[in-house]
Amino acid sequence: MLFPVPVRFDITATRLEGGRRQSTQAWSIVDFEIPEFDPDDAPVAVSWKQDFGGALFAYPSSQEAVGPSPRDKPMHVRKIGYQFYRPLMRERSIPEVKVVRHGEDADFLAAGTMLDMLRNFTDTGVFTTVLPGDSNRKRLVRNGGDGLTEFVSIDHHSRDRAVQEIRKRIARFVIVDGLVYERCPEPVVVTFTADTVGEPGRGTFAMVTTDAKQVARADARNEVFQLEDYASALKKVSRSNASRPGKLALSRINESLAPDIDNPESIYQPDVAWMRQVDRLALHVVGWVGEQKASLLSDGLFSGYRNVFTALHMAEGEERFDLFATGFQEVFDASLGTEWEHLAEKAQKAIDLLESRPVALGPLNVGLSPASM
After folding, report:
1. Predicted pLDDT of residue 361
2. pLDDT tens digit sequence for 253-304
3. Which of 102, 141, 258, 353 holds its CA 20 to 30 A away from the CA of 122?
4. What is the DSSP string of 97-111?
5. Exposed, middle or buried by CB within 10 Å (0-12, 13-18, 19+), for 80?
6. What is the CA angle 65-68-69, rounded to 5?
7. Rg of the chain over CA atoms, in angstroms?
């Protein structure tokens, strides 16, 4: 989909209407394309209701940590290949893209709405360029959107560089089902504690987010869980809220915040999510053992490390999982009762997952991205 974007650039030249050579600024309308994807090619990996039961957070840091969300639509993240994408937001009542906090009247940004904003010079949306003033808008109408046509004897201009900078910025955006999405980190569950205005008061919440760092700015004691380990996050908030006056209301809120994984092909479905858990445990073991001096490793631990490392780089399937099982068992046997007991704990978790796995799996593309390895 093409978007006509006003681009400001520097130029040194002489204007057509005469006058001395000057260094000034000019504008052009340049078409930029954002790729469109069919919803079937960009499935929803997870959705959730970012609904806190009408409770408003007392401090801006908490409002920004939670972020904006529509009142009547679930938040969601789509997956294209190994990349995740979240919908962009806009202020529902005004034609601008400015929402940043929970509690603001937000809606998803539609591609058609952003196109109207550009045509009406009300907001440049994801392109984040400067809007031209009235006189420059009249010039753009007069020159057909090409600011260079108003000059002769052009010494130099920066339009090409400005266009390239915008193209770099918008490379992270796509359009799916009429909405604009931005590439984002993989969604996780974050537990954080915050104060609300009125009921339920102070409480701990478990919320799906793609910006765990923003939550950390509001609560340094936050804890991050993977989506497939949501049950652990819920147990944590239940313990934290057990003695609070508003525990019943907090329980209802946290139940409403639960992730919804209704897409049968989602990587977070229980029948495939265990593979990602095994991958993460493998990455932990490989990362930790790989940092140790070889002279400190026993033969069994080195053999386990080698097998786990090899399995990490194999295609999904029974052969890979069998090698994982062998490697993790070696790590467990070599670490149990030693100063590296924490490796035995990780290995045992992986062994339990592997022993309870579905059988006869063919090649699947559900693991962690190669970049994370």
Report:
1. 45
2. 999 998 887 665 666 766 677 787 888 899 999 999 988 888 888 999 999 9
3. 102
4. ----STTS-EEE-BH
5. middle
6. 130
7. 27
Residue 331 to residues 305, 324, 342, 354: CA-CA distances in angstroms? Answer: 7, 10, 11, 15
Q: What are phi and psi of 129, to 5 degrees?
A: -95, 170
- Which residue has 């989909």 as its token pair? 1
Q: pTM for this structure?
A: 0.75
Question: Tens of pLDDT along 60-77?
Answer: 888 888 888 888 889 999
Which pLDDT band, with edges at 50, 70 and 90, does 366 fall under? very low
Distance CA 274, CA 286 (A): 18
Q: What's the rounded Cα separation, in Å, for the pair 338 and 304?
A: 16
Alpha carbon dihedral 312, 318, 319, 325, in 10-degree steps, equals 60
Q: Is 29 helix (H, G, I), strand (E, B) or coil?
A: strand
Contact 347, 321 (CB under 8 A): no
Q: For residue 193, give the DSSP letter.
A: E
Alpha-helix runs per DSSP H in the chain: 60-66, 111-119, 134-142, 159-170, 212-218, 230-241, 247-256, 270-290, 299-312, 318-335, 341-355
Of 138, 55, 167, 149, the residue nearest 103 (C-alpha): 55
User: Helix, strand, or coil here: 9?
Assistant: strand
Residue 121: DSSP 8-state: T
